[in-house]
Amino acid sequence: MKVLIVGSGGREHAIAEAVSRSSRVDKIYCAPGNAGIGQLAECVNIGAMEFDKLVDFAKEKEIDLTIVGMDDPLVGGVIDEFEKAGLRAFGPRKNAAILEGSKAFSKDLMKKYNIPTAGYETFTSAKEAKEYLETAKYPIVLKADGLALGKGVLICETKDDAMEGVKELMQDKKFGDAGNKIVVEEFMTGREVSVLSFVDGKTIKIMTSAQDHKRALDGDKGLNTGGMGTFSPSPFYTEEVDKFCKENIFQKTVDAMASEGREFKGIIFFGLMLTEEGPKVLEYNARFGDPEAQVVLPRMKNDIIDVVEACVDGTLDKLELEFEDNAAVCVVLASEGYPVKYDKGFEIKGLEKFDNKEGYYVFHAGTALKDGKIVTNGGRVLGVTAKGDDLKQARANAYEATELIEFENKYKRNDIGKAIDEA
Distance between CA atoms of 289 and 269, rounded to whole angstroms? Predict the structure, then answer.
């Protein structure tokens, strides 16, 4: 069969790698792809938001299945366009992708269906938000309602910080229209855990857990990024936590969406906070996490095509997800200065050292092919993933592997998975 993957980052490279392992797939295309994905798939110069061109391409090439990796096209309704054209595509329709597309929608859904989450208020007026913040309890969290590349969340320690945050989101429009509405949320403390799941509209199957590191600098300091590294499984996602989430969060979310007439087929990413009162939902995403996909998919035993088609066809209940009994750690190699300002276009050396190196993966996030050489082309450049018998071994392997790759202005955090030592 022929498969089209939509997207251009490390997540899409991880999806492409998983698809390339399927005995059912003869040909992979990726739009627009990147230099690393180009080694597994034929990259096509069509942007993820160019729906008409994507549909025309899928028809022309007789694509059997399209997998959409990115949030923007899903929230924009790309799956609806494929379905209208009679094409098979994996991901939630527009009316279900709102689970990620609007923070206010997801908070209201959780409140209505009694799914545990932090207390919150929603505002469309900066004046009213500031009035509320005059008497609020600090620290407090401000969230842009819409998509903001994973960066529209501000943790405000003081009232002054919060007032400045409202100005940034709603008045200065730092994230454009995403800040037209904001959610002001109580600050929760505890361990963060990510749980990815496959959903077919009624059945949900949980993947292995993971834990991301969002801040740019060691010690969880610096600005929020798209993710500087991750590990899987999370030692903090215990059997007790799993049982609670299965009873109170996972299936309830799928059922809530169905009750609202928004049948969800695709990936639900649960961002959880393990608080003293029990697990609570921090956020939902409507697609694979990045870089979480880079540690979860390499550990999945199933043929990804079998699972994706079961979601599309509503037959997920007939399938069991299986994961390797090991661990994986991903360390992101970024451009110095990310996420603010950085140079690109530097040649990346050492990638050939990973050829046929079992248990090691280099997922390209921001790379390009220039004059026959692979060069840096983004803030997050590569995700270096390594497996190990346990998390400590996987972490040691991943950090060792990062030393095999060189490019000018290479930057990484040195404490990805350090929490493992505290488990």
Answer: 7
